[in-house]
Amino acid sequence: MPKTKTSRYGVAEHLRTPKEMAAYLEACLEEADGDASFIAKALGDIARAK
Description:
Number of helices: 2
Number of strands: 0
Strand content: under 5%
Structural class: mainly alpha
Largest sheet: none
Order of helices and strands: HH
Distance between the termini: 41 Å
């Protein structure tokens, strides 16, 4: 059986508009449950998207 090739998913590549970025941040804030590092990562993803 051949090996399956995978690659990292870069969310920043898929955040194209301010509306998408806002929706992503809102979803991350809901999922973070007070985890500041999770929110910081989401903000970094948005910064890379810009």
